[in-house]
Amino acid sequence: MKILAILYKGGNAATSEPRLLGTVENQLGIRKWLESQGHEYIVSDSKEGADSDFQKHIVDAEILITTPFHPGYLTGDLIAKAKKLKLCVTAGVGSDHIDLNAAVKNGIQVLEVSGSNVVSVAEHVVMSILLLVRNFVPAHEMIERGDWMVSDIARNAFDLEGKVVGTIGAGRIGYRVLQRLMPFDCKELLYYDYAPLPEAAAKAIKARRVEDLKDFVSQCDGTLGLVNTELLKHFKKGAWLVNTARGAICDKDAVAAALASGHLNGSRQVTPVMFGMSNLHPKTTSCVQLRTSLVAVTAWCPHYSGTTLDAQARYASGTKSIIENYLSGKAQEPQNVIVGIGKYETKAYGQR
Question: Helices then strands (H, E): number in the chain?
């Protein structure tokens, strides 16, 4: 059986750090296991164009492994050529790069390692909130310039204590964000979700559910996701916005306009938390935008919040488990299944 993996090159970092499992060099740590069973395992970062390894090998691969950090875009046209393809595995969380409707139509299963990134992303959210509230990026850039004007930074720096923080969504990541915010003695923790948390879970984090989205954002000093021009009108003036979900959840132009006008005090792309993030680059980067009365500051970092070394260990192990279940005919863990055989098994990617 041919198994094709499209991963990213790790270069010297992957050579010196074998725990960078999600790289071409370290191959999710499963090459020996697969080859010991007689399978062919092709690993490459080449994914663009007809001459890419991706397009050359997809025609006769039975299993495709991809990653949200260097996605091989499996379109309907490519699926039509992939006559032997039966299983797509996302090493991580986020399968937007696969034409899921085409997968359903062609009987191809799509699975991801659900939960592998939740701790990593939740911690990244809290870090982003603190970066925004404490006005850290402009402070760092001031020192890089050799300046020392404390007042220029302090005039837009706040404590997290006493603020109202909310998450749009209180699932695996949103809930963990709220958990991690408890020690900061926020004025109130809010969440908006289509379903309420179990009573014991909500009580454990002292979070209150707000059922109307516009009412929700109007109460928050900071928040996560689902943001357009109309919704931004209901944000509390000076709020921070953090988005660690998919890029399309935020209208980047609307967020940029709100930053320019001062209606938003700051934004960072990273799950929906009502504390000031926006997905300003939907594919590969995270962005912090901080507005002061003098200048808008943007700081960029790679899309790495869900691929810490700990997260890589989780999604490498999960990828192996999914393939092992497939090869042995064992049932998959339900939370990992996006597309089963001929049907959707989740609404995580919208109504389809």
Answer: 14, 15
pLDDT in tens, 64-88: 999 999 999 999 999 999 999 999 9
Gap between the Cα atoms of 267 and 255, Å rounded: 8
SS3 126: helix
Closest to 320 measured CA to CA, from 17, 8, 45, 41: 41
Dihedral sign from CA coordinates of 126, 131, 133, 134: positive
Strands 109-112 and 164-168: unpaired
pLDDT computed for residue 248 by the predictor: 63
Residue 176's contacts (CB-CB under 8 Å, 6 or more residues apart) are: 118, 119, 122
Place of tokens 């948390």: 197
> pTM (2 decimals)?
0.83
Enter the tokens of residue 262.
């001062």
3-state DSSP assignment of residue 138: helix
Torsion of CA 191, 314, 329, 72, to 10 degrees: 80
- pLDDT tens per residue, range 241-274: 877 766 667 777 888 888 888 888 877 654 333 3
- Smallest CA-to-CA distance from 277 within 131, 175, 158, 140 is with 131
- SS in 3 state form for 177-201? HHHHHHHHCCCEEEEECCCCCCHHH
Cα(38)–Cα(246) distance, integer angstroms = 38
